[in-house]
Fold:
Amino acid sequence: MEIHQILPDITNGDAIGNEALLIRDILRKWGFRSDIYAQHIRSGTGAIQYENYQKRSSKNNILIYHYSIGSCLSDFIKGLPDRIVIIYHNQTPEKYFWGINDHIAELLRKGKGDLNEFSKITRLGLGDSEFNRQELQELGFPKTEVLPLIIDFEKYSRKNEKIINHYNDKKVNLLFVGRIAPNKRPDEMLKIFYYFKHIHPNSRLFIIGSYEGFETYYHKLKELVARLSLTDVIITGKVCDQDLNSYYSLADVFLCLSEHEGFCVPLVECMYFDVPIIANNVTAIPDTLGDSGILINNKNYCEIAELIDVIINNDDLKMKIIKKQKERLKTFELDKIKRKLKVYLSEVISN
Amino acid sequence: MDDNTIEIRDGEINFEEIMAKIRENIRRRQAAGELPPDPDSLIGSPSKNCYSSESDDTIQRDLASINSNWDIHNNNYFISSHQPHIGKLLIKGRQLVHGEVRRYIDPMISRQTEFNASTFRIITRISQQCAELEQSQQDFKTAFSSFKEESNKKITDCVTIAKKDLNSEIKITIKERFTEIDDYIHIRTRIAHALEDRVKKELSQKNNPPLSTSKGNTNYFLFEERFRGSRDDITQRQRAFLPYFEKCSNVLDIGCGRGEFLEILRDNGIGGIGVDSERDMVAYCRSRQLAVEHSDALTYLESLEDKSLDGIFIDQVVEHLEPDYLIRLLALCHQKMKFGYHLVIETVNPLSFVSFANFYIDLTHKRPVHPETLQYIISAAGFRECEKKFFSPVPDEGRLKMIEGAADMNETERKNFDIYNHNVGMLNTLLFGAQDYAVVGKK
Structure:
């Protein structure tokens, strides 16, 4: 029996790609023959073009499908005899992307319809958050569980000292990490920073994430920075792990106004790097935070800016937030998730 | 999710304290004018909506969507290949096909884009106009609502005040009516008693010849009811004399009649007693809880201690008296009064023809007393600072009328006009002068 994974894109540095690679390693260690099949493959991942899976497919195999967007893979998988397990990372509503990236918007629209059909042929639906699991359940998936996103904490040890030294001044650093896309609402972060800058002129906002495919949106964002006459806004684009770790090390507060998240890996990364989190109380964000961090119920920019000020001026409060986040981080320890994965797969195997 | 901006699930963190601090900081900055202007006001419309397709308003969301999608040129299509070896060849092939397709498709895309742009501009303008109209309507609604609220409040206030005034007016009217009814009943009761007495007297006279009285068989109570005037009129007239008896405690009202002046004294916290020779009057006053003695004035005065009175009031009495009686009365008044207090005597003014003529309505009137005479005999009795005061002027409609001069009168006309009006003035004084007068003296 073999356990393989299949997904539309595999990239190093992408949360889903990273998880797929980690699962492959885990499965191999457990003695299974395990590979990753994908439609778009970036070099260095060791993935195989998905059409090749036709030759390996078997009713004895388990095929794990990482689902986050519509693709031609869905039609391909539906014709296979394998036992299908879906890891559902959720799909950003396509309304955010029309006019920004129509191609992605169209894939997301298609993805919704395709997922419906998988409810009938899937042995196990795994949501990487309770929010995602509930969505599967509502779509009629017969068996669903939560498997938090598997994160390799080892990669966080390396830092780029140049970045740290460059920004090692007395400025207060606010941080956001994520794709520069409309659903992440970086525009709202700029408005909060606009208020915060009036409280703390000596402050800086880092927006770290790729804007590949969202260039028009990136330019609109730059225009907004100019209209608000903001200084000290650093939009880096895609960065490597080492650089990312450095920005986390520099951050005083992490701010996430995103309106749609299936898991939100940066929250876990903040827990790891002891950065107090302020995040929007929607979709999977409260699931990932548990009882840690501070949730935003109403986007009152002025009050949120004042909240940041309160946190950075109150060491006791800051320590309490960090302490709770550290406790929450244990939920995402690799061993714990591995055990869960083992249990879930065993059930699929035995049935 | 609650209404607060933030939510903290960690029980060890005091959420209320943080929110209080946040709000206090905002208040402080607001007061200090440190809050910057709303960022949306700097961004301007419609660009402020273009950062997210999400919007609270469906139309705004749709507009944002049209704004984003009117240009249907596909700029996101990039020709690339992941194939390591044949990639370059594939790209060349795709570029060739792409170029051919674009030659056919691009003109259509451009025309459609132009059409979309025009449509978008029209929709945007209509939408803006709608928004302006909505705003005007909203402004009107707000103004109307505030006007309505204000009007309602004013009407409610007016009604409340009117209701209050009306209630109070009704209460006063009811009280007045009850007082009038009360007085009426009193008077009618006394009249009934007087008539009963008269019947009894006439019955007894058949057996015992009647004793001569100063007023003969005339019932003065009934007479006063007919000719003297209402109690209210009398009260109003007599109130003018109240200042002479302020702070007094033992004022004697000689010939008190229906007790109007005694009531004025009582209402003003001044002690007073009346004396009247008419039994019916005395009974009437007593029924109104007034202290009145049934006696002849001289007899009563003689019974009092010397210098015991601090005021004497004699109204419409002296014209009923013989000169000797009057002189004796004034002497006794002086004897019984304390030093520094006032004697007030009011009577009919014989200097006015109208009151002189009316004098004879009352058969019990003996003779009018000339003001000079009365002033003299009061002074002669020992009273100081005696002065005359005239009351009850004849209303204008009962007096001779003067003529009005004209601006263009010649000298003769002017002279005649002056003479005429002078004569009318003299005649008015003689014929229609003050009907009553009083002499006030001080011991």
Summary: The two ends of chain B are 96 Å apart (CA to CA). Residues 17-138 of chain B form one domain.
